[in-house]
Structure formats: structure tokens, C-alpha cells
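Sequence only, no structure available. Ideas?
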Amino acid sequence: MKKYLVLGLVFLLIGSLVIGCGGGKAPATSEPSGNAESTKTQESAQTGQAEKAEKEIVIGLSMSEDTQFLVNVRKAAEKKAKELGVKLITMSGQSSVEKQVNDVESLIAQKVDAIILNPLDKEGLGNAVDKVKAAGIPLVEVNTYTTNDKYDVYVGSDEEDAGRIQGEFVKRTMGTKGNLVILYGVMGHSGQIGRYEGLKQSLLDPCPDWKVLADMTGNWQRDQGVRIMEDWLQKFGDSIDLVVSQNDEMALGALQAIEAAGKQDKIKVLGIDASPDAIQAVKEGRLALTVFQDSFGQGQKSVEIALGLVKGQKYNKQEMIPFQEVNKENADQFIEKLKEWE
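Reply:
I predicted one. C-alpha cells follow.
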């Protein structure tokens, strides 16, 4: 009997040792649980980094003023930014260098990822360029450019080409002599300077019998084109054969004054930009010529390049989009082109 009692106690002792050994291994089984928690933490950190890397990119757009052409540039930029998932902060300098400088400083203070600048004045926005680059912000200039060439990329067209197209059209359709007046854009603006140089090279220098009766800045504005043309009609009367305007807004203003005076059959008017109402006027034979400048292409490309610069991509210093002549024969083609962008 004692023998069986002793054996029972031995089995009980062995059983307790087995259970004890199993209990001793419990911390080891908890180790995989600890690794799972660590992995979860790492995944959370990686997700946070990915979210930070994919944070919304913000681009600032500083426009010089609100002419129809520049409104189209802005609208194209806004449309492209939406397509690319980029936030675009737009500001208008309202034809004031001081306000545009303040706008650029505001964008810098907001720590935008890139800035697109449409400078009102080649010289006047030079300091703003320095401030943007000192802040380490990529800078794209669109449609017009600054003398300060520290910007990363210029998106636009060769302004001299527009003036050359006007000059060649005059020689082809009106000959090598006559009297003309010139409506300039904002003085010191790269468009104003370049377009005059192109006209000078193609018409005024090779054809000295084309006499400039008067020239004046209409600051790209239609109402100023009306007022200036009214004054010239009173002063020069039927001596004027041709109005060369550096943009469509002033050209249409001049045309309004000419038509009001009943002299539309005597005086031809040339514009630049190919705004919708200018192309329609060309189609109707009221405006002799406009020059297509791709406002939509410029606006879209400026956003694409600004985003690319933020991502470290490289571009040429100048991304040029050519001008094209718009006359009565091809006006319908450009009307259709504008419809595609609406």
C-alpha cells in the first residue's frame, strides 16, 4: 500500500514540474506579440512619412493685371492645377508694381512650394525675384520676364516675333510707304519693348517711307485705346493709314473710335494676342490682323513646370511657344481652337 502511495506522490511531483516548465515558457510566447507591436509602430511611422511626402503642393501665382489675355492665362493655370491636384493661390497686381511686389512677399511668407510670376515691369520686379530665390523657392516667369534672370524658367513667346509678324503683314498687304501711329503697352514691359523691336526690324528700318505720326502708351487698356485714338483722329484726320497696337485690347479700343468717326474704310488696325473678340473682328474684316499668342498653353505649361521644379525636375531656361498670324482667311481655325479650351 505504501508502495502505491509513494508512486502516486512521484507522479504528482512530475506533473507539477511539467506544469511549472510550461509556465516558465510563457514569457517566451509573449515575445512574438512584442514584435507585432513594434512592426505596427514602424508601419504607422512609414504611413506618416508617406502622408508627409504626399502633402498638398501649393503654388503661388502673381499676375500683373487683369487684361483679357492674362485672365485666360490665369484660368488655364487654375484648370491645370486642378487636374494635377495642386493648390493654386492667385493674386493680381492690378497694374501696380508696388502691389505686385507686396503680393510676392505675401506668397513667400505663406511658404508656398513654388511661385509663378507674370511681372508688370522688367526692372521693377527685380528685387522680388531676389527675395523669392533667397527663400529657396522655385520661380517660373510666365508671358513676361524680368531683367533679373535669376528665375528658374521663363514660359512665353518671343515678343519680337509678334512685332515682326505685324511688320511683314503690312509690307505684304499695304506696301512700303504710308503713315502710322503706334499704341504701346506698359512702358518698360518686356512685351512693349520686344514687340516694338520686332516692328522696327521688319518695317520701320527697312521701309523708311512708313512714317510714325505719333506713338503713346495705352497701358494695354481698351478705354485708353479709345481716348488716344480719338485725339489722334482730331489731330491727324485722314493722314493716318494704319494703327499698330501692341495688344488686342488697345486695338479694339482704337477700332471703336475709328468706327465712330466713320473712317473704318480708310484706317487699318493691327493687334496682338488673338483674344476671342479680336479674332471675331478679324473674321468680319473690321480688324486687319491679330497675332495668336497661346495664353492657355502658357498658363498650363507654367503650372506643369512649377510642379516639376518642386519635384526636382530640370528644364531649359526658356520654354518658348511660337506666335502665329491670324488673318481673315484663317480666323475660323483659331475660333475653333479657342472653343476647344472653353
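DSSP finds twelve helices and twelve strands in the chain.
Hope that gets you unstuck.
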